[in-house]
Specification:
27 helices
């Protein structure tokens, strides 16, 4: 009887602990309201003030992202901000929380589309073109549910770019037209003009020369009127390319005479166009000199092929058939090489239906999984309610005795862990005494709205405080020794196993392990917060790539 009573009391105690733990988890799962406000503000500023949006995101303490939805939204917005700052990510590790959350059918259609669009960009940066198109097709599934002409336009524009890369010009033209209609609808005039440029290029690649020439000339007039030098040069380059393809030397000469000094006379296309014009006028020697000049400026196989082909035509005109044949063979060799490379790539356009079917299958699997999890959670909830109802009156009767057992248990735990607790308190006090003032001063320097002289005084004080740690190698070695003492000798391990790290890399890692904030580190190293975050991100990725023997210990000790 006594054993049964004791077992029952211990069961009640465990139930109490489980309920208390569940309550704590429910409380800690709430992301603070101000964090959500920062995320929403960064999303609003993303298109027009991407630099400000990035600063806001970097100021968010990721430890406050308690919910999966908050972590996913932060991951999505931070990846988007880096993309807008031309940081070409090649792995989806940063975007992974967003993909894991949104690809289960959660969140808004806009966020699901954005996540897959960014994934397509990442795959493209890494050279995984098939996966890039697959991600864009999944993003396209949400088009009918998204009221954002800017994002939908970007999606179709990128699809068009990917199709054109594999010479699927009809599909590229279709996607670009959809992108242009979106940009017109949203009055994104700059994107509209550049999309028209890509449409004209698609027409040119399809040998629809009348349509492409009309578009190029219209855009050239607009760019000239608006003094848009970049767009003007692009239009001129494409027009010269088209005229050379058509061997229309008269139009090429008229274009060059019309623009005079506005054309980049040092460019490859200018030299090639002028060479063909001179050759058509009978100035063979001058044409050959221009071809040799252009050959030195060639940057890709297409340019080199064009120089060989022009020289082939010149030698053919002069009756030098052996030299003409040699250059023609070089042209065909380059074309064969390009064709083999293209044929080795998957024919993406023919995969559309397959990937749509795959997307529908995944969506069905997601729905089934959600139903299964819903049923399991319902059963689990019902079971918890039944258990609580059964033991509720027993818990009330034995509350006093349970309290005595809990007190005794806590006393035993405190006694057994006394040494560990004391040691942790000493470590925490040591780090707080040595580093908290520096962190606070650095934060005040960034956040104060005082006059410049006050900020200068704060900065001077910070420099005096950090001089002991950051300016002198011996003092930095002392700091590294402190970090080694309390962080499992991690800095010594890194120096031994990753000798390729520079002293600046090691210094950043030392400050990181020591628990300094990003703001403090930016003051120590006289650099921006954005650059510090980027450097930390690259250091972590480099350590993962190098795979040192103690990688798990190195990453485990990072704050």
């Amino acid at each position: 009887m006594f054993e049964a009573t004791k077992f029952l009391e211990m069961s009640m105690q465990r139930i109490n602990q489980i309920i208390f733990t569940l309550l704590l988890m429910m409380c800690s799962a709430c992301t603070p309201k101000h964090v959500w406000q920062q995320l929403d503000l960064s999303a609003q500023l993303m298109n027009n003030r991407a630099d400000t949006a990035l600063v806001i995101l970097e100021s968010i303490n990721k430890k406050q992202l308690h919910s999966e939805s908050a972590e996913a939204r932060y991951s999505l917005l931070y990846s988007q901000a880096l993309d807008k700052h031309y940081v070409d990510l090649t792995t989806d590790s940063l975007l992974e929380p967003a993909l894991r959350y949104y690809n289960r059918g959660r969140g808004t259609a806009h966020d699901r589309m954005l996540a897959n669009y960014l994934l397509g960009r990442i795959h493209y940066n890494a050279g995984r073109y098939l996966y890039s198109m697959a991600a864009l097709l999944e993003a396209e599934e949400e088009v009918d549910y998204v009221d954002d002409s800017y994002l939908v336009g970007l999606l179709y524009a990128y699809k068009g770019f990917l199709h054109s890369k594999f010479y699927d010009n009809p599909s590229a033209l279709k996607a670009l037209r959809l992108a242009d209609s979106c940009f017109l609808q949203g009055q994104h005039w700059k994107l509209h003009k550049h999309t028209l440029l890509n449409i004209a290029q698609a027409y040119m690649n399809m040998q629809e020369y009348a349509l492409s020439e009309e578009l190029f000339l219209d855009l050239l007039n607009i760019a000239t009127a608006e003094q848009d030098a970049f767009l003007s040069q692009k239009c001129v380059d494409f027009l010269l390319t088209q005229y050379m393809n058509q061997e229309d030397h008269v139009k090429a000469k008229v274009l060059l005479d019309r623009l005079e000094q506005k054309v980049d006379s040092t460019s490859f296309l200018y030299a090639m166009a002028l060479a063909q014009i001179k050759a058509s006028e009978g100035n063979i020697n001058e044409a050959q000199e221009l071809i040799l000049k252009a050959q030195k400026q060639a940057t890709n196989s297409r340019d080199i092929s064009r120089t060989f082909f022009t020289r082939y035509r010149l030698h053919q005109t002069l009756g030098n058939y052996k030299e003409a044949l040699d250059h023609y063979k070089k042209v065909t060799h380059i074309q064969d090489t390009v064709m083999r490379r293209v044929l080795r790539q998957p024919i993406i356009a023919t995969q559309r239906d397959f990937y749509r079917t795959q997307a529908e299958l995944r969506a069905e699997q997601i729905r089934n999984t959600q139903i299964l999890y819903g049923a399991l959670f319902a059963i689990l909830g019902l079971l918890v309610v039944v258990i609580i109802m059964q033991f509720r009156h027993r818990i009330a009767m034995k509350q006093a005795e349970v309290g005595q057992y809990v007190g005794l248990l806590d006393e035993l735990r405190e006694k057994s862990n006394a040494d560990t607790i004391e040691m942790n308190m000493q470590i925490a006090k040591l780090f707080a005494d040595q580093f908290s003032l520096l962190n606070q001063l650095s934060a005040i320097y960034y956040e104060t709205h005082a006059f410049q002289k006050d900020k200068d005084a704060i900065y001077k004080k910070v420099r005096e405080e950090i001089g002991y740690w950051s300016d002198d190698k011996k003092h930095h070695k002392d700091l590294e020794s402190v970090v080694n003492s309390y962080k499992n000798n991690v800095m010594a391990i890194i120096r031994r196993e990753i000798p390729s790290f520079s002293e600046l890399d090691l210094r950043i890692l030392c400050y990181w392990y020591a628990g300094f904030s990003t703001k403090a580190m930016s003051v120590f190293l006289a650099n921006t917060i954005s650059m510090i975050n980027t450097r930390k991100h690259r250091l972590r990725n480099k350590m993962i790539q190098l795979q040192p023997p103690s990688l798990a210990l190195i990453l485990e000790n990072l704050p």
